[in-house]
Amino acid sequence: MADTQKKQSFLHGTMLLAMATAIVKVIGALYKLPLNAIIGPEGFGYFNTAYDIYNVLLMISTAGLPVAMSRMISQASSLGHYRQVRKIYNTAKGIFLALGLTGTVLMTLFCKQLAAFQEQPDAWAAIGTLGPCCLLICLMSAYRGFFQGQSNMLPTSVSQVLEAVCKLIVGIAAAILVYKLTQSIPYAAGGAILGVTASCLISSLYLGQCFRKAYRNLPATDEPVSSGKEIAKGLLIIAVPITIGSAGLQILTMLETKIYMEQLKTYLTQDTANIQKGIYNMTQTIFNMPCAFITPITISIIPAITAQLTTKEFSAAKATGESAARVTALISAPCAIGLSVLAGPITALLGGYSGENLALATSLMTILGVCILFNAAVLLTNAIMQSHGHVNIPVINMFVGGIVKLVAISILTGNPHIGIMGAPIGTLLCYLSITMLNLISMKRALEQAPAILKNMLRSVLAALIMGAAVYGTSYGLTQLLGPDMSRIIACGVPLVVGVVVYVLCAVKLKAITREDCMLLPKGERIAHILHL
Question: How high is the pLDDT of residue 159?
Fold first, then answer.
């Protein structure tokens, strides 16, 4: 296999995906920020309502199967069973396509009923336009699972960038064109969604081309170890619990929207509730940007740890988990503190808000910023337990956290003095609960549990020092230039100060080790620059 397909190390694969994620997030900002200006908070709310429903069907279709596929292919590859790899892929693809077709039919044919269920009947156009993505994303997930199981993250990375570029061009153009032709915000939101559908099509075509070449080059000298029926059973044993957990949490998120919209409408008009939902959705978009950088770590860690456990390298598996914890904290901690401290300038710049809308966005973003660190811990600990074969435990913990979230949101948003602020508070309580449960579960379930908190602590300390420096810089600028200073200056100057302070503190506190650097491309040079 070494002759036919390059194997990247865990952190090498993570770096490839992280670089792609950085590009995707920049392009995503170029997509969603002008989109928010084109269709307004109300239209952005319709856009996100479609995504909420799509994500439920998407989680059912793709949450567990790629993990199961990645684990099984990693095991087969590490033992040299390449015919087994082919059989796993073909079996998984059949399941993917069946689920994707079901999701597409549901979203396309029942778009009006789904929109009414979400208390936003005008979102039907966006929901229906997004329907075909369910089938396309399932096809893409089959390809990505094949590559990720062999620790080849390059096709996934390139496809994500292609997807983002296409979404930007088609989505913005369609939103502007449809709005000019119809003067309808709901139809314009549907036009924006068209970019997402087109991007999935382009990405699936690219991945298909990469797959055909890699599939042909797989050695075929051995016999499959398992039958198709046995493989399907193995896939489902791993996938079903993960899918139930992920889809269940997404369903709870969809119910969250329904709950807080119903509560808000008891003391607000429909239009005001829609606008507040749109503002909250925009802050969630900003919140999701740094969270997306954690996903490459979880994607890379599952096949890496699985291969190490398959070959009985238990200490190496523990070390990989701890390395992942350090990298996770190195990314998530400064994002969490930075977004909380600079919530006002960031939402003013990226959301274009002012007045009461800016005050609301600032408060929402401050709480969601803190959520980033706990969300990162949840994603990491879920991946570690899944790679060890404990797929049921994260499901139970996520359900507990989801229930905490719904109860908190129902109580808090029903209070007019708290209002929609109850939604991010409920989210924070949810991630905090899951993090604590996961850490306790890992201690009990794993013989050599990685020390997660210990390996995240130094980055958190560095981020807290950075936060103080950022706050001081922001306060000083306000005193010097006044509150009406340029939004770019209000964001940019504290951000630059924060980056410099954080890098210095992270190096001084040894938040990342020389061993971590050596797993990266040009690692020796990076370690030398950082004096590790």
Answer: 84
- What confidence score (pLDDT) does residue 84 get? 81
Amino acid letter for position 176: I
Domain assignment of residue 295, yes or no:
no
**Helix, strand, or coil here: 328?**
helix
Long-range CB contacts (within 8 A, 24+) of 229-235: 231/72, 231/87, 231/88, 231/91, 232/91, 232/95, 234/68, 234/72, 235/65, 235/68, 235/69, 235/72, 235/88, 235/91, 235/92, 235/95
| 3-state SS, one letter per residue, for 177-229 | HHHHHHCCHHHHHHHHHHHHHHHHHHHHHHHHHHHHHHHHCCCCCCCCCCCHH
Radius of gyration of the chain (CA): 23
**Residue 532 pLDDT grade (very low, low, confident, very high; cuts 50, 70, 90):** low
528 alpha-carbon distance from chain centroid? 32
What confidence tens digit (pLDDT) does each residue in 334-366 have?
Answer: 999 999 999 999 998 887 788 888 999 999 999
For 160-200, the pLDDT digits (tens) are: 888 888 888 888 888 888 888 888 877 887 777 788 888 88
* Mean pLDDT, residues 101-117 taken together: 84
User: Rounded to an integer, what distance in angstroms lies between the CA atom of residue 65 and that of residue 70?
Assistant: 8
Domain housing 59: 1-225
With respect to residue 380, please indicate whether it lies within any of the assigned structural domains. Answer: no
Most confident option among 213-217, 316-320, 490-494: 490-494
As a whole number of angstroms, the distance between CA 331 and CA 114 comes to 37
Q: Is position 491 within any domain? A: no
Residue 286 domain flag: no
Q: How far is CA 195 from CA 129, 145, 182, 531, in A?
A: 10, 24, 18, 45
Token digits of residue 510: 């040894």
pLDDT higher than threshold 70 for residue 262: yes
What is the 3-state secondary structure of 426-481?
HHHHHHHHHHHHHHHHHHHHCCCCCCHHHHHHHHHHHHHHHHHHHHHHHHHHHHHH
If you average pLDDT over residues 145-161, what whole number do you get? 79
Q: How many domains does the chain have?
A: 1
Q: Compute the Cα dihedral for 327, 328, 329, 334 and give only its sign.
A: positive
Tens digit of pLDDT for each residue in 404-457?
Answer: 999 999 999 999 999 999 999 999 999 999 999 999 999 998 888 888 899 899
3-class SS string, 7-68: CCCHHHHHHHHHHHHHHHHHHHHHHHHHHHHHHHHHHHHHHHHHHHHHHHHHHHHHCCHHHH
User: CA nearest 305: which of 523, 313, 447?
Assistant: 313
Burial class (CB in 10 A: 0-12, 13-18, 19+), 495: middle
